Amino acid sequence: MKIKSLMWMSLMFSIIMTMSNSPMIMWMMMEISNMMFIMMLTLMQSKNNNVPALMMLVQFFSSSLMLMGIIESSTMLISMGILTKLGMFPAHMWMPMVIFLSPWKLNMLLMTLPKIPPFMIMNIMSNNNYVFLSTILTPLISLIKLIKTSDMKVIMALSSMIHSSWMILAKSISFSCWQFYFTMYTLNTIMMCKFLMMSKYNNNINNMNLLTKVIMVLMLFSMMGMPPVTMFMTKIYTVNMMSMMMITILIVLLVASAISMVYYSRMFLKTFFGSTKKSKIKINLKSISLYDIIWIIFIIMLIVMM
Fold this sequence. Notes:
It catalyses: a ubiquinone + NADH + 5 H(+)(in) = a ubiquinol + NAD(+) + 4 H(+)(out). It is a multi-pass membrane protein. This is NADH-ubiquinone oxidoreductase chain 2. Its EC number is 7.1.1.2. Keywords: Electron transport, Membrane, Mitochondrion, Mitochondrion inner membrane, NAD, Respiratory chain, Translocase, Transmembrane, Transmembrane helix, Transport, Ubiquinone. By secondary structure, this protein is an all-alpha fold. It has one domain (1-305). Helix content is 76%, strand content 0%. The chain has 14 helices and no strands. The protein is globular, with a radius of gyration of 20 Å.
């Protein structure tokens, strides 16, 4: 009950931020929201206390940068603080580490809720070259790390970092475009984490049974924007709304998305068909529950939805 109350209070202060145009007031509301979120992490993280402490250090460092930027009227310092909170280049290393150490229930919140306050502040300030540079380098760095890992938590963290770059691009177009992208991203992330949580998935993809792999492939393709899934349509909408001035960032993001989709396709095809050849898997229809059928129907509806 306490966790739900803290979550709603954190969300409420994030929404209150939209009612002010003062950077200082928005910063104060954001810090209150962050404190609620860290308290929620402390209550949820019973086994590993390193995550709340690490989050506290990250928030303290980024908030100090933002406060200095507001006092000195430095857009660069404010941008550095915001990018740190979002887990983007150059302060991006904490995001995969925190996601790796946290359970899926916690990751579902870590990859969605803390993104709201920084983007609320970005909405009242114009993007600068530093933000655009981070938007370009973040997906490139994520791709390099993506090739070197097979851990699902790290993969989700890197995917979240790439989506943050897309959100900055969407925010540069209009706030409504960002709202649409963030909503679709949040729904996909929550569904993915819920599924991994319910299937009691830990790390290794090879530990999954056949049915779980099928659903996992469909959901992860949705996260990565494989056509014609919902995130693909969301990216197409963002591309249609953008101006020609952002063509460089768009090319980098599209290349990053294409490479990541190729990587995911190879990884899952190898896992799916490789394990099928090694062990003669027989699907027992009686073992498929009503829950499994509902999940499959829901995922198929999500994929074909335009």
